[in-house]
Amino acid sequence: MIIKNICRKTKIHPFFYVTAFIALITGNFKDFSVFMSLLIVHECGHILTGLRLKWNIESVWIFPFGALTIFKDHLNKPIKEELLIVFMGPLFQMLFYLFLLPYQIPNLENYHYGLLLFNLLPIIPLDGSKILVLIYQRFFSYFSSQFFLTLISIYTLIMLFLMSTHTLILYFIIIILISKTITEFKKRHILFSKFILERILYTFSFPKRKIIKGNKIKKMKRDTKHLFYINKNYITERVYLQKVFDFKGKKW
After folding, report:
1. What are residue 233's phi and psi, to 5 degrees?
2. Is residue 114 situated within a structural domain?
């Protein structure tokens, strides 16, 4: 039942079929199959861990040079859970690579380490960007993390373009990554509003506490319960946020 549900949510990009066909007629389909097997096992690491932690999967996208699992869940989920989901992708891939190693499959090592290292680059939406932003959110505000991640992603894309051999495949990958980075940056205010609204609508238990002086909601952090100090009064996080979203009420 779970497998059937995941298959129904899996979407394959049209360019995947084009790439598979080109690999077939050029005699490179075996290499393509090896690469895609590593990629799929990698993504299964994210999916299975997410299911184990009871995260809701919205969709799974398969591209010719990567895959992406989109979770539809609270932005206020524990950072350690999200980190575990991210780390399990590379771990599954590594274990699968070690399993295949005795069979001496041609180019297996190149494909494995190429995929692993590329995926750990801090570029949206690669695993490296997720690890970096989760570490950042552990110490800094949620809102600033989106801006920080965009800057790091753009910088890494520029370095990738300058340092790599220029091919059509590289151009295609960079265009996709730039598109994802721009889309994520445009969504930052929507994501932050969702992050705040979740604090009003649901009850979360966080291990840390933080006092915010003034009405600076953009200083709010993940895994942290806040107390606002405004006009010499301490106001609980939920009371203050309810007031912020109640436009008919008086402003603090």
Report:
1. -125, 145
2. yes
- 3-class state of residue 118 by DSSP: helix
With respect to residue 34, please indicate whether it lies within any of the assigned structural domains: yes
d(CA 42, CA 75): 23
Q: Classify 177 as helix, strand or coil.
A: helix
pTM of the model: 0.90
Residue 69 bridge partners (DSSP): 60
Single-letter amino acid, residue 231: N
Surface-to-core class of residue 239, CB atoms within 10 Å of its CB (0-12 exposed, 13-18 middle, 19+ buried): exposed
Unique residue bearing structure tokens 């059937």: 4
Host domain of residue 113: 1-119
Residue 177 domain-assigned? no
Asked if 76 and 204 count as a contact pair (C-beta separation under 8 A), the reply is: yes
47-79: per-residue pLDDT in tens? 999 999 999 999 998 987 788 899 988 999 999
